[in-house]
């Protein structure tokens, strides 16, 4: 669901948070000059769903990100985010309450990231979501 045309109170609060706090934090951490536009959408993956390998590279996009909201997720549940190294950079922010202040650089050729509630992953690379 593209959030551009959704204006419920909850979605509006999420959009406001990402349009200001999160965007400013990404700019500070990456050193990128970001404009005010932030594209937001939501996806829900059910049993056996997957997202094939692709990139999120659009001409105006500098950073793509995933925010995990699923509680108690394990590798056994499937649905890992598999990151493929390209010339881009990958960073994973592991925080419990969206404080968004620590960063850990991924150095593997391919990383398998299991969802962790209230963590956000920002990347400039090729990825897929497994079954």
From TrEMBL:
One Pfam family recorded for the sequence: 2OG-FeII_Oxy_4
GO molecular function ontology, one term from the record: peptidyl-proline dioxygenase activity
Every Prolyl 3,4-dihydroxylase TPA1/OFD1 N-terminal domain range: 41-89
Top-level lineage group: Eukaryota
InterPro entries in alphabetical order: TPA1/OFD1_N, uS12_prolyl_hydroxylase
Gene Ontology terms describing biological process: regulation of translational termination
A GO-annotated cellular component: cytoplasm
Name under which the protein is recorded: 2OG-FeII_Oxy_4 domain-containing protein
């Amino acid at each position: 669901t593209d959030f551009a045309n959704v204006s419920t109170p909850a979605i509006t609060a999420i959009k406001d948070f990402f349009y200001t706090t999160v965007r400013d934090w990404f700019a500070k951490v990456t050193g990128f000059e970001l404009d005010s536009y932030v594209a937001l959408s939501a996806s829900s993956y059910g049993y056996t769903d997957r997202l094939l390998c692709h990139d999120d590279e659009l001409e105006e996009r500098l950073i793509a990100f995933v925010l995990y909201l699923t509680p108690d997720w394990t590798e056994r549940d499937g649905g890992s985010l598999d990151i493929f190294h390209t010339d881009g950079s990958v960073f994973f922010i592991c925080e419990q309450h969206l404080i968004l202040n620590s960063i850990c650089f991924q150095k593997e050729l391919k990383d398998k990231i299991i969802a962790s509630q209230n963590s956000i992953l920002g990347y400039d690379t090729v990825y897929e979501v497994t079954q």
